[in-house]
Amino acid sequence: MNIQSLSFAGKHGELMKIDAVNFQEKKGTKNAPSDEGGECVGYIMAGDWLKYDQVHFKDDVSFISLRVASASNGGIITISVGKLDGPIIASIDVKNTEGWQTWKSLTVPVKIDKGIYSLYVSFHPFNDIIQANKLAEKQLNTIDSCMAVVTNLGQKKRLSHLRARIAGAKHHIALNSEFEKYQWTDLPGQMDSWARSFLYRIDDISSFGNIMSTQNRFVQQNYVEKINKLRKYQRVKAPSHVTAKGTQNGALVTWRNEEPGADIFVVCRDGKEIASLPISANQYVDTFNGKASYTVYVIDTDGNRSLPSIPYYCLAGDADNGDSCYCKSFSSDLGCSGT
User: What is the pTM of this model?
Assistant: First the structure.
Protein backbone atom coordinates (compact mmCIF):
# COMPACT_ATOMS: atom_id res chain seq x y z
CA MET A 1 0.00 0.00 0.00
CA ASN A 2 0.95 3.68 -0.25
CA ILE A 3 0.18 6.43 2.26
CA GLN A 4 0.08 10.13 1.38
CA SER A 5 -0.90 11.90 4.59
CA LEU A 6 -2.39 11.76 8.08
CA SER A 7 -5.02 14.33 9.08
CA PHE A 8 -6.31 14.93 12.60
CA ALA A 9 -9.60 16.67 13.42
CA GLY A 10 -11.34 17.85 16.56
CA LYS A 11 -14.85 19.07 17.26
CA HIS A 12 -14.09 22.36 15.49
CA GLY A 13 -12.55 20.87 12.35
CA GLU A 14 -9.09 19.89 11.13
CA LEU A 15 -6.29 20.41 13.65
CA MET A 16 -3.28 19.16 11.74
CA LYS A 17 -2.16 17.44 8.57
CA ILE A 18 1.10 15.52 8.37
CA ASP A 19 2.63 14.52 5.05
CA ALA A 20 3.51 10.86 5.42
CA VAL A 21 7.06 11.41 4.15
CA ASN A 22 7.83 13.79 7.05
CA PHE A 23 8.69 10.98 9.47
CA GLN A 24 11.71 11.09 11.79
CA GLU A 25 12.40 7.36 11.89
CA LYS A 26 11.22 4.34 9.94
CA LYS A 27 11.61 0.66 9.29
CA GLY A 28 11.39 -0.47 5.67
CA THR A 29 9.26 1.61 3.24
CA LYS A 30 10.55 3.90 0.53
CA ASN A 31 9.39 7.29 -0.70
CA ALA A 32 7.78 7.33 -4.13
CA PRO A 33 6.28 9.94 -6.48
CA SER A 34 2.60 10.69 -5.94
CA ASP A 35 0.06 11.64 -8.56
CA GLU A 36 -1.41 14.02 -5.97
CA GLY A 37 1.84 15.97 -5.86
CA GLY A 38 5.12 15.54 -4.03
CA GLU A 39 5.90 12.12 -2.63
CA CYS A 40 4.13 9.41 -0.68
CA VAL A 41 5.41 6.57 1.48
CA GLY A 42 5.31 3.38 -0.56
CA TYR A 43 6.82 -0.09 -0.92
CA ILE A 44 5.25 -0.90 2.44
CA MET A 45 5.50 -4.44 3.82
CA ALA A 46 4.08 -6.10 6.91
CA GLY A 47 6.18 -5.16 9.92
CA ASP A 48 7.24 -1.76 8.57
CA TRP A 49 6.60 1.38 10.61
CA LEU A 50 6.97 5.18 10.63
CA LYS A 51 7.67 7.43 13.62
CA TYR A 52 6.57 11.07 13.94
CA ASP A 53 8.08 13.05 16.83
CA GLN A 54 6.80 16.16 18.58
CA VAL A 55 3.28 15.99 17.18
CA HIS A 56 1.58 18.90 18.96
CA PHE A 57 -2.20 18.85 19.31
CA LYS A 58 -3.53 22.15 20.61
CA ASP A 59 -6.97 20.67 21.11
CA ASP A 60 -8.46 17.23 21.72
CA VAL A 61 -8.48 14.96 18.66
CA SER A 62 -11.71 13.18 17.69
CA PHE A 63 -10.93 11.79 14.23
CA ILE A 64 -7.97 10.66 12.19
CA SER A 65 -8.02 10.35 8.41
CA LEU A 66 -5.40 8.58 6.28
CA ARG A 67 -4.94 9.16 2.56
CA VAL A 68 -4.05 5.74 1.14
CA ALA A 69 -3.86 3.73 -2.10
CA SER A 70 -3.31 0.06 -2.82
CA ALA A 71 -3.43 -2.28 -5.80
CA SER A 72 -2.83 -5.38 -3.67
CA ASN A 73 -4.70 -6.95 -0.77
CA GLY A 74 -3.83 -3.99 1.45
CA GLY A 75 -3.55 -4.52 5.17
CA ILE A 76 -4.08 -2.95 8.56
CA ILE A 77 -2.58 0.35 9.74
CA THR A 78 -2.35 0.96 13.47
CA ILE A 79 -1.33 4.16 15.24
CA SER A 80 0.24 3.94 18.68
CA VAL A 81 1.39 6.59 21.13
CA GLY A 82 4.73 6.97 22.91
CA LYS A 83 6.47 3.84 21.65
CA LEU A 84 6.14 1.20 18.97
CA ASP A 85 4.29 -1.20 21.25
CA GLY A 86 2.49 1.60 23.09
CA PRO A 87 -1.27 2.08 23.37
CA ILE A 88 -3.01 1.76 20.00
CA ILE A 89 -5.32 4.72 19.43
CA ALA A 90 -6.50 3.81 15.93
CA SER A 91 -6.72 0.80 13.63
CA ILE A 92 -7.67 1.21 9.97
CA ASP A 93 -8.33 -1.53 7.42
CA VAL A 94 -6.96 -0.64 3.99
CA LYS A 95 -8.51 -2.63 1.15
CA ASN A 96 -7.59 -2.67 -2.54
CA THR A 97 -8.35 0.79 -3.98
CA GLU A 98 -7.84 -0.48 -7.56
CA GLY A 99 -4.57 1.32 -8.19
CA TRP A 100 -1.25 2.34 -6.62
CA GLN A 101 -2.26 5.97 -7.22
CA THR A 102 -6.01 5.61 -6.72
CA TRP A 103 -6.23 7.55 -3.48
CA LYS A 104 -8.94 7.25 -0.86
CA SER A 105 -9.39 8.91 2.52
CA LEU A 106 -10.21 6.55 5.39
CA THR A 107 -11.49 8.11 8.62
CA VAL A 108 -11.94 6.55 12.05
CA PRO A 109 -12.85 8.05 15.45
CA VAL A 110 -10.08 8.42 18.03
CA LYS A 111 -9.64 10.06 21.41
CA ILE A 112 -6.39 11.96 21.94
CA ASP A 113 -6.11 14.66 24.57
CA LYS A 114 -4.33 17.85 23.59
CA GLY A 115 -0.60 17.67 24.13
CA ILE A 116 2.69 16.71 22.46
CA TYR A 117 3.19 13.10 21.35
CA SER A 118 5.38 10.68 19.44
CA LEU A 119 3.20 8.70 17.05
CA TYR A 120 4.03 5.36 15.47
CA VAL A 121 2.27 4.24 12.30
CA SER A 122 2.62 0.47 11.86
CA PHE A 123 1.64 -1.80 9.00
CA HIS A 124 0.23 -5.30 9.40
CA PRO A 125 -1.22 -7.97 7.08
CA PHE A 126 -4.84 -8.97 7.31
CA ASN A 127 -5.20 -12.06 9.49
CA ASP A 128 -7.05 -13.86 6.69
CA ILE A 129 -4.00 -13.50 4.43
CA ILE A 130 -1.75 -15.11 7.03
CA GLN A 131 -4.25 -17.88 7.69
CA ALA A 132 -4.78 -18.54 3.98
CA ASN A 133 -1.05 -18.89 3.43
CA LYS A 134 -0.71 -21.32 6.35
CA LEU A 135 -3.69 -23.35 5.13
CA ALA A 136 -2.28 -23.59 1.60
CA GLU A 137 1.08 -24.77 2.98
CA LYS A 138 -0.62 -27.42 5.09
CA GLN A 139 -2.69 -28.65 2.13
CA LEU A 140 0.38 -28.84 -0.12
CA ASN A 141 2.20 -30.93 2.46
CA THR A 142 -0.77 -33.29 2.68
CA ILE A 143 -0.94 -33.67 -1.11
CA ASP A 144 2.82 -34.31 -1.32
CA SER A 145 2.47 -37.07 1.28
CA CYS A 146 -0.33 -38.69 -0.73
CA MET A 147 1.55 -38.43 -4.02
CA ALA A 148 4.53 -40.17 -2.44
CA VAL A 149 2.53 -43.35 -1.80
CA VAL A 150 -0.02 -43.37 -4.64
CA THR A 151 0.83 -45.77 -7.49
CA ASN A 152 -2.24 -45.34 -9.69
CA LEU A 153 -1.31 -43.00 -12.54
CA GLY A 154 -4.81 -41.52 -12.80
CA GLN A 155 -4.91 -40.69 -9.10
CA LYS A 156 -1.41 -39.26 -9.23
CA LYS A 157 -2.39 -37.01 -12.14
CA ARG A 158 -5.48 -35.73 -10.33
CA LEU A 159 -3.41 -35.02 -7.24
CA SER A 160 -0.87 -33.20 -9.40
CA HIS A 161 -3.60 -30.96 -10.82
CA LEU A 162 -4.96 -30.29 -7.34
CA ARG A 163 -1.49 -29.43 -6.12
CA ALA A 164 -1.03 -26.94 -8.96
CA ARG A 165 -4.35 -25.30 -8.08
CA ILE A 166 -3.44 -24.86 -4.39
CA ALA A 167 0.12 -23.82 -5.22
CA GLY A 168 -1.35 -21.16 -7.51
CA ALA A 169 -3.37 -19.76 -4.62
CA LYS A 170 -0.28 -19.72 -2.40
CA HIS A 171 1.85 -17.99 -5.05
CA HIS A 172 -0.92 -15.45 -5.60
CA ILE A 173 -1.00 -14.64 -1.89
CA ALA A 174 2.77 -14.10 -1.93
CA LEU A 175 2.56 -12.08 -5.14
CA ASN A 176 -0.10 -9.74 -3.78
CA SER A 177 1.62 -9.26 -0.44
CA GLU A 178 5.10 -8.61 -1.89
CA PHE A 179 4.48 -6.98 -5.26
CA GLU A 180 4.04 -3.50 -3.85
CA LYS A 181 7.68 -3.44 -2.75
CA TYR A 182 9.14 -4.83 -5.95
CA GLN A 183 11.79 -2.82 -7.74
CA TRP A 184 12.55 -3.41 -11.43
CA THR A 185 15.30 -5.93 -10.69
CA ASP A 186 12.93 -7.95 -8.44
CA LEU A 187 10.69 -8.82 -11.39
CA PRO A 188 9.19 -11.29 -12.18
CA GLY A 189 9.23 -12.38 -8.52
CA GLN A 190 6.38 -14.79 -7.80
CA MET A 191 4.76 -14.15 -11.18
CA ASP A 192 6.38 -17.11 -12.93
CA SER A 193 5.46 -19.58 -10.22
CA TRP A 194 1.89 -18.30 -10.21
CA ALA A 195 1.60 -18.55 -14.00
CA ARG A 196 3.03 -22.07 -14.19
CA SER A 197 0.70 -23.33 -11.50
CA PHE A 198 -2.14 -22.43 -13.88
CA LEU A 199 -0.56 -24.20 -16.82
CA TYR A 200 0.30 -27.39 -14.95
CA ARG A 201 -3.35 -28.06 -14.19
CA ILE A 202 -4.57 -28.27 -17.80
CA ASP A 203 -4.20 -30.86 -20.59
CA ASP A 204 -6.02 -29.51 -23.64
CA ILE A 205 -5.52 -26.54 -25.94
CA SER A 206 -9.00 -25.13 -25.29
CA SER A 207 -8.35 -24.89 -21.56
CA PHE A 208 -4.94 -23.38 -22.30
CA GLY A 209 -6.59 -20.56 -24.25
CA ASN A 210 -9.06 -19.87 -21.45
CA ILE A 211 -6.29 -19.83 -18.86
CA MET A 212 -4.16 -17.42 -20.88
CA SER A 213 -7.13 -15.09 -21.38
CA THR A 214 -7.83 -15.09 -17.63
CA GLN A 215 -4.18 -14.47 -16.79
CA ASN A 216 -3.84 -11.63 -19.27
CA ARG A 217 -6.90 -9.83 -17.89
CA PHE A 218 -5.76 -10.28 -14.29
CA VAL A 219 -2.24 -9.04 -14.94
CA GLN A 220 -3.42 -6.12 -17.04
CA GLN A 221 -5.79 -4.97 -14.28
CA ASN A 222 -3.37 -5.40 -11.39
CA TYR A 223 0.28 -5.22 -12.42
CA VAL A 224 0.83 -3.49 -15.75
CA GLU A 225 0.48 -0.13 -14.00
CA LYS A 226 3.35 -1.08 -11.70
CA ILE A 227 5.61 -2.18 -14.57
CA ASN A 228 4.93 0.94 -16.61
CA LYS A 229 5.49 3.20 -13.61
CA LEU A 230 8.87 1.62 -12.85
CA ARG A 231 9.93 2.04 -16.46
CA LYS A 232 8.67 5.63 -16.53
CA TYR A 233 11.28 6.70 -13.99
CA GLN A 234 14.18 4.93 -15.71
CA ARG A 235 16.70 7.34 -17.25
CA VAL A 236 17.16 4.94 -20.17
CA LYS A 237 14.02 2.86 -20.77
CA ALA A 238 14.50 -0.90 -20.67
CA PRO A 239 13.11 -2.90 -23.62
CA SER A 240 9.66 -4.45 -23.29
CA HIS A 241 7.83 -7.48 -24.72
CA VAL A 242 10.94 -9.65 -24.46
CA THR A 243 10.21 -13.25 -25.43
CA ALA A 244 12.37 -16.30 -26.13
CA LYS A 245 11.04 -19.26 -28.09
CA GLY A 246 12.94 -22.52 -28.29
CA THR A 247 14.10 -23.61 -31.75
CA GLN A 248 15.78 -26.78 -32.95
CA ASN A 249 19.24 -25.29 -32.46
CA GLY A 250 18.64 -22.69 -29.78
CA ALA A 251 16.17 -19.84 -29.24
CA LEU A 252 14.60 -16.91 -31.04
CA VAL A 253 14.71 -13.80 -28.84
CA THR A 254 12.47 -10.84 -29.67
CA TRP A 255 11.82 -7.49 -28.00
CA ARG A 256 10.31 -4.03 -28.40
CA ASN A 257 12.19 -0.77 -28.01
CA GLU A 258 10.94 1.80 -25.44
CA GLU A 259 13.90 4.21 -25.53
CA PRO A 260 13.65 7.17 -28.01
CA GLY A 261 17.42 7.68 -27.90
CA ALA A 262 18.36 4.02 -28.38
CA ASP A 263 21.55 3.23 -30.30
CA ILE A 264 22.51 -0.40 -29.57
CA PHE A 265 20.68 -3.45 -28.21
CA VAL A 266 22.59 -6.00 -26.16
CA VAL A 267 21.19 -9.52 -25.74
CA CYS A 268 22.16 -11.52 -22.66
CA ARG A 269 21.83 -15.18 -21.80
CA ASP A 270 21.93 -16.03 -18.08
CA GLY A 271 23.31 -12.55 -17.41
CA LYS A 272 26.17 -12.79 -19.93
CA GLU A 273 26.29 -10.65 -23.07
CA ILE A 274 26.02 -12.73 -26.25
CA ALA A 275 25.22 -10.18 -28.96
CA SER A 276 25.26 -6.45 -29.73
CA LEU A 277 22.83 -5.34 -32.41
CA PRO A 278 21.92 -2.08 -34.19
CA ILE A 279 18.81 -0.10 -33.36
CA SER A 280 17.02 -1.52 -36.41
CA ALA A 281 17.06 -5.02 -34.87
CA ASN A 282 14.18 -6.45 -32.85
CA GLN A 283 15.20 -10.12 -32.71
CA TYR A 284 18.19 -12.40 -32.34
CA VAL A 285 18.69 -16.09 -33.09
CA ASP A 286 20.77 -17.78 -30.41
CA THR A 287 22.53 -21.13 -30.82
CA PHE A 288 22.41 -22.89 -27.48
CA ASN A 289 21.18 -26.08 -25.79
CA GLY A 290 19.79 -25.86 -22.27
CA LYS A 291 17.59 -23.89 -19.92
CA ALA A 292 18.29 -20.20 -20.32
CA SER A 293 17.18 -16.81 -19.07
CA TYR A 294 17.22 -14.10 -21.73
CA THR A 295 17.30 -10.35 -21.15
CA VAL A 296 17.91 -7.37 -23.42
CA TYR A 297 19.24 -3.95 -22.50
CA VAL A 298 19.73 -0.82 -24.58
CA ILE A 299 22.57 1.71 -24.85
CA ASP A 300 21.54 5.21 -25.89
CA THR A 301 23.38 7.62 -28.20
CA ASP A 302 25.18 9.15 -25.19
CA GLY A 303 26.51 5.78 -24.07
CA ASN A 304 24.10 5.37 -21.15
CA ARG A 305 22.91 1.83 -20.44
CA SER A 306 19.42 0.78 -19.39
CA LEU A 307 18.55 -1.83 -16.82
CA PRO A 308 18.06 -5.32 -18.25
CA SER A 309 14.56 -6.19 -19.40
CA ILE A 310 12.38 -8.46 -17.32
CA PRO A 311 13.87 -11.95 -17.94
CA TYR A 312 12.24 -14.55 -20.14
CA TYR A 313 13.04 -18.20 -19.47
CA CYS A 314 13.30 -20.71 -22.26
CA LEU A 315 14.22 -24.32 -23.06
CA ALA A 316 16.62 -23.75 -25.93
CA GLY A 317 17.65 -26.31 -28.54
CA ASP A 318 17.56 -29.93 -27.43
CA ALA A 319 16.69 -28.99 -23.84
CA ASP A 320 12.98 -29.02 -24.72
CA ASN A 321 11.84 -32.26 -23.14
CA GLY A 322 8.16 -31.46 -23.27
CA ASP A 323 8.11 -29.01 -20.36
CA SER A 324 6.45 -26.31 -22.43
CA CYS A 325 5.46 -24.40 -19.28
CA TYR A 326 9.09 -23.49 -18.70
CA CYS A 327 9.13 -21.31 -21.79
CA LYS A 328 6.30 -19.16 -20.51
CA SER A 329 7.81 -16.47 -18.32
CA PHE A 330 4.45 -14.80 -17.94
CA SER A 331 5.74 -11.65 -16.32
CA SER A 332 7.92 -10.92 -19.34
CA ASP A 333 4.87 -11.45 -21.52
CA LEU A 334 2.88 -8.82 -19.71
CA GLY A 335 3.75 -7.08 -22.92
CA CYS A 336 0.75 -8.65 -24.59
CA SER A 337 -0.96 -5.50 -23.35
CA GLY A 338 1.76 -2.88 -23.31
CA THR A 339 4.64 -3.40 -20.91
Answer: 0.53
